[in-house]
Amino acid sequence: MKIRNDIVKVYKDVHIWVGIVAGLMLFVAFYGGAITMFEKPLERWATPPSSLAAPVPLERAPELVSAVLAAHPEAARHYIVLVETAPDTPARVLWRVRGERRGDYTDYGASFGPDGRLQVERIRKTPVAQLVDTLHQHVGLPFPAEVSIPIMGAVSLLYALALVSGLIILLPTLVKDVFALRIGKNIKRMWLDVHNALGLVSLPFHLVMALTCVVFAFHDQFYDAQDRVVYPNGIQWGEEAAEPPPPAGARPLPAAELLRRVNEQLPGFRVYGFSFEQGDDRLEGHVTGLDTRYGTRARTYASTHLDPYTGQVDMHDLPGHLGGWDSAVNTFFMLHFGSYGGNSVRWMYLLLGLAGAMLFYTGNLLWIESRRRKDRGAGPVTQKRSVRVLGALTIGVSLGCVAGISATVAAAKWLPALVQDLALWHEAIYYAVFAAAVAWAFVRGAARAAVELLWVCAAATLAIPLSSLAGLWGIGGTWNHAGTGIVIDLVALAAVPAFALIARHARARARAGHADSVWSARTAGDAAGAVARVSAAN
User: Fold this and answer.
1) DSSP of 511-537
2) DSSP string spanning 462-485?
3) By CB neighbour count within 10 A (0-12 exposed, 13-18 middle, 19+ buried), where does 422 fall?
4) Section 22-36 average pLDDT
């Protein structure tokens, strides 16, 4: 396809500068987003064991609910009966007490002890998975959501612009360059081939991510605009009619019976639990679970209304039973969250997320290589300050994000025995490592810092399975849950040699690569001296 050179140049300038402005924030968003594909397993791996007795059988749930409501009447506002318990949700009955501020709440769980007495425990779910998700949503910025989310939306708009402009740049040489990977002395050509291949292969994924992120960030503004432009009387959201009071003497069905009736109505729907809220004249119920044949608006579950007196499920909110508009909205969410197709799709999204982070990293490398002042035998070459600054930022931000997340995840099994405010400590560890990495990159320069920080990444990531190993031996109050959580340790263990291998390559390049590069730890004088010594030896 032919496009005039002057037009391609305009799009190339747009692509380069948009990528420079947004690339590093997008690296953090994609690296964190890749990890959040397994947010629930990470949460279970990181949550300390409960001191409650083993969950009572589901058949005894009504007895436990009655005991909880008698001792803690505030639980009637919202309580959950779990069908499936897990390390992060260790009790058959859970409830939540709201705090004074928005989003401030405390979860409690209950069981019966060996002596038959009610046991109640505050559920101390480790917030490290939530931190990674927040980094993903806030593109790594340490600001409140009111500030970070609009910035994330603006970054997503730039991201969409970079995708379109990058595709237009590639069109004239698409047939020749697609999937070409020319590894040789021309470093810029190699990084360009990698960048093009990553971008083209994952283009549909990136288009979905860019579009959905813009809508997530600005959906309030979109609704406000519709209110003023499309709907003269404002959007009529509609309200569901209140359910009539149950017949006199009617009692909520036991959880085991509710489960049986839901399974009859929703074959293939795996029930996680039931939630209840006591209204003025009736108990309101919801059923939560997942049918992997359909995508969901939430990452890991779907939920809908349930009549707790009859077990009748209101299916119109469940994927597979939605109307046309609701199905479109549901599709929008599920494409972003990868909440369809089960674990195979989650692994695919994880790989695409890591490839996306690599795409932005290689974009910065291309900019740096394009502006490298080359040694032409006229004396030592000093690179521009802009090249050195972007090189240090690229190394510091990217590897600081990787090392920071690994460090705070590894700390998850040590902190509960040492501190009270887990969220504060996890956040502090991440940002301390991140800030130190950025500062180190500027102090040492991109070439040396790349090698050193890659070893830091390897060490911090190795600390994750070592923390689980410490848990097996009960060192320092650590623990280890048996079961599928070992996947977290195995993935971290597999990443360690990858970091080590990259560090060795980076070290080799720093020592023997072009001296006129920000990735070289040598100076032009060192290179000339080496050549002279070789000549003298001959």
Assistant:
1) HHS-TTSTT-SS-HHHHHHHHHHHHHH
2) HHHHHHHHHHHHTGGG-----STT
3) buried
4) 93
The angle subtended at Cα 272 by Cα 268 and Cα 273, nearest 5°, is 125
| Non-local CB neighbours of 290 within 8 Å, separated by 6+ positions | 269, 270, 272, 296, 300, 301, 302
Distance CA 305, CA 286 (A): 4
Sign of the C-alpha dihedral computed for residues 400, 405, 410 and 416 taken in this order: positive
Q: What pairs with residue 283 in β-bridges?
A: 278
> What is the distance between the alpha carbons of residues 516 and 530, in angstroms, rounded to a whole number?
14
Three-state DSSP string of 211-228: HHHHHHHHHHHHHHHHHH
HSE, CB side, 13 Å, CA atoms: give it for residue 50.
27
Cα dihedral 413→418→423→426 (10° resolution): -60
Instruction: Supply the DSSP string of 160-190, one letter for each residue.
Output: HHHHHHHHHHHGGGHHHHTT----SS-HHHH
Q: Bin 298: left if φ > 0, else alpha if -120 < ψ < 50, else beta.
A: beta
Calculate mean pLDDT across residues 409-418.
Answer: 94
Please tell me what DSSP assigns to residue 361: H
C-beta separation of 407 from 415 below 8 A? no
Distances (CA, A) of 151 to 16, 18, 399, 401: 19, 14, 22, 18
What is the tens place of the pLDDT at every residue in 86-131?
888 899 999 998 877 776 788 999 999 999 999 999 988 889 999 9
Q: How far is CA 69 from the centre of its chain?
A: 37
**Residue 455 and residue 497: Cα distance in Å, rounded?**
10
Amino acid identity at 380: P
Q: How far apart are CA 69 and CA 75, in angstroms?
A: 6
Range with the largest mean pLDDT of 45-59, 229-243, 363-377: 45-59
* 121 C-beta neighbours (distance < 10 Å), count: 16
Q: What angle do CA 102, 104, 105 make, to 5 degrees?
A: 130
Phi-psi region of 85 (alpha: psi -120 to 50; beta: other; left: phi over 0): beta
Q: Residue 225: what residue type?
A: A
| 3-state secondary structure at position 374 | coil
The DSSP string of 392-447 is HHHHHHHHHHHHHHHHHHHGGGTGGGT-S-HHHHHHHHHHHHHHHHHHHHHHH-HH
- pLDDT level of residue 180 (50, 70, 90 thresholds): low
